[in-house]
Amino acid sequence: MKVIARLLSIPLTLIAMLVLWLAVSPFTPHISYWGAGSLIGPQYIGPLLLIALVLVILAALGALASRSCYVPSVLAGIALVASVGLLGTQIHAAKEQGTDVDIPAAFTWTGVEKADEGPDHTVTYDSFNGDDLTMDIYSPETHSIRSGSSHPRKHPVMMYVHGGGWDQMTKRSQAFNMRQMAQRGYLVLSIDYTLSSWEQPTWKVAAGQVGCAMNWVNAHAADYGGDSERFFTYGESAGGQLVLNATADVAAHPSQLPFTDCSGTPAVPSAVYADSPALDVRHIYDSDDPYAGQGSRDTVEKYLGGTPKEYPDRADFVTSATHLTSDMPPIMIVRSDHDRLVPPASYDDFRQRAKDKGVELEEYVRPHADHASALSAHGVWNQHLLQAMTEFFQANDLEDDL
């Protein structure tokens, strides 16, 4: 028994150290390299808590046979306490925001890119350099009828723009959330756009492609049961920046999109929800985080075709604050308190510009979280995202109820 316990102590110690790192780092995010665990821990803290609990039990049983299991016992115990504390903080904060948290669901380990079924349709909304730009369509699963009318009621439309630093990820990155929003009665659209690379910076075209997708909404949403006058946009990280910039542009120029070569008149969004939007490339480029800093700089350089100092006009063009006008519809921004990829200071100019222009801006800060922490399908923060976004869109709908 002692031999088995000693053999088990090594893997138990290693696993306990990993879980401890992911559970504790959200409380200590500013420790170099160590704090990078906060990019993962808050998203999957439910499953990590279960792992810590199992480790505590196994290590305690091993400690009865050998002192070599004392170390993993202590490590697993600390990880368990930290996990309980972090999950409890998330639940409390989400409930304060009105989220009806499904606590058992938070213990499952599924990413938002996973969905039980794919989109109902995929269409081409534009092209760029000979390549098709495509859009996934998720049809509403409810079919409401207008009161006193025998005609089917058209559904509100939500368009999602994915994140990934302008150079990665796809329109399927939040397939779970797309289907969830369709189940809530929205015609959901998720678009691809041209990704940046060292050979092809996209600072001038990406937001314009989002605007071209808004042209498609105005022209074709009704073909799929959607109402283009009840139109909402959502994006996270780089997608949040793109959707904010495009929404601001079409709101200010509703008859014809600037900075694009696509024809048509865009649908004008009634509200925009942005999760951890990359509002200011200068702040992102200047990140001094030892873990994420170089990646952030590379991302910005690929997007701009160089550094913000080399191309200040390009940096100004993509900075979201420069696009805001008094015509901008209501905005909700949800971000994290310790975002190492999009520094909190990057929101300051945008917040002031919104105030100066009289733009309605709501902002919520997730505690003990890092960049885009709502990427676990059943995690507390994604539960909050789905409920908060639905309520925000409903509050800004032209009609009182779905």
Automatic annotation (TrEMBL):
Sequence ranges assigned to domain BD-FAE-like in this UniProt record: 150-349
Segments forming a coiled coil: none
Keywords annotated in UniProt: Hydrolase, Membrane, Transmembrane, Transmembrane helix
Domain of life: Bacteria
Entry annotated with the keyword Hydrolase: yes
Single GO term (MF): hydrolase activity
TM ranges: 7-24, 44-64, 69-88
Protein name in the entry: Alpha/beta hydrolase
Species: Corynebacterium kefirresidentii
Classification lineage: Bacteria, Bacillati, Actinomycetota, Actinomycetes, Mycobacteriales
